[in-house]
Design goal:
The protein has a 7-stranded mixed β-sheet, sandwiched between helices. A 3-stranded antiparallel β-sheet has the order 7-6-10, with no helix packed on it. It has helices at about 5-15, 35-45, 45-50, 90-105, 125, 130-145, 145-155, 190, 230; strands spanning about 20-25, 55, 65-70, 75-80, 160-165, 170-175, 180, 200-205, 225-230, 245-250. The two termini are about 20 Å apart. With about 250 residues, it is α/β, with parallel strands linked by helices.
């Protein structure tokens, strides 16, 4: 979604998320759930966001993107998808950007233009589990290296990453016959290990485009997963180690 080039557009989409669409993950007893809900509501509630957060993303100031003096918290926003082949090569995003610019020049009175381009790419280039987790890790690693700079720049006590996940559909771990095991992405060891032992305090994983169909009873992914990282660290044994070569997209 090329509309997510602007960080505030991601925040605006979070305003549409209800609390019951969010999955908080901390220690087993969720001892910091009240603090987590306070932070989460300060982001998904528009009035609370305006009271608590300063938009630093549109300035030439040093990062992070948003700062909350009330919460003594800095927040940086990043995008991931399952198309990037590394080293800046992302054919899907390139095509979407091109189409976005074409439409923006025609419909220039619209505040926001969404593009979901039909790329025509082969499936292994359009939705690829290896691309997905490697891109996630690369983006997280890049921002983690800046953590001390963030805090030093503005004197905040804690830090939060907001990951806008633009992947659609979902993945399955192939089983015998026509059966597959649903990918619980927020418990995937490869992804979570990229931040679980870092100095980061919180991570919000915003995944608005994931979907899957099952036989009844119907189940859904959370739209937002919110990690209290220090708390969830005690639950690393619950993470799932998916076999990379067994993962396939439901959009195959």
């Amino acid at each position: 979604m090329t509309d997510y080039d602007v960080e505030m557009n991601i925040i605006q989409d979070l305003f549409d998320v209800e609390l019951n669409e969010c999955c908080p993950l901390g220690d087993k007893n969720m001892t910091r759930i009240e603090e987590m809900e306070k932070i989460l509501l300060s982001i998904i509630n528009e009035d609370s966001f305006k009271k608590n957060w300063y938009d630093n993303s549109k300035n030439t100031n040093a990062p992070p993107d948003f700062i909350s003096e009330n919460l003594s918290l800095c927040m940086d926003i990043m995008r991931v998808d399952d198309h990037s082949q590394g080293k800046g090569k992302n054919e899907c995003r390139r095509l979407e950007s091109k189409r976005h610019d074409e439409l923006a020049s025609i419909f220039n009175n619209y505040e926001r233009i969404y593009v979901n381009e039909q790329t025509g790419l082969e499936q292994n280039l359009d939705h690829n589990y290896s691309f997905y987790y490697k891109e996630f890790k690369r983006v997280i690693d890049k921002h983690i290296r800046r953590l001390k700079t963030y805090k030093n720049n503005y004197g905040t006590e804690k830090s939060l990453f907001l990951v806008a996940d633009e992947s659609s559909g979902t993945y399955y771990r192939r089983k015998k016959g026509n059966y597959g095991e649903l990918h619980i992405f927020f418990y995937d060891k490869r992804f979570v290990e990229s931040f679980i032992d870092s100095e980061l305090d919180y991570l919000i994983w915003f995944a608005p485009y994931k979907f899957f169909e099952t036989i009844p009873p119907k189940r859904e992914y959370p739209t937002v997963v919110f990690y209290d990282i220090k708390g969830f660290r005690s639950r690393k044994n619950e993470l799932i180690d998916y076999e990379e070569n067994m993962m396939c997209s439901n959009e195959d």
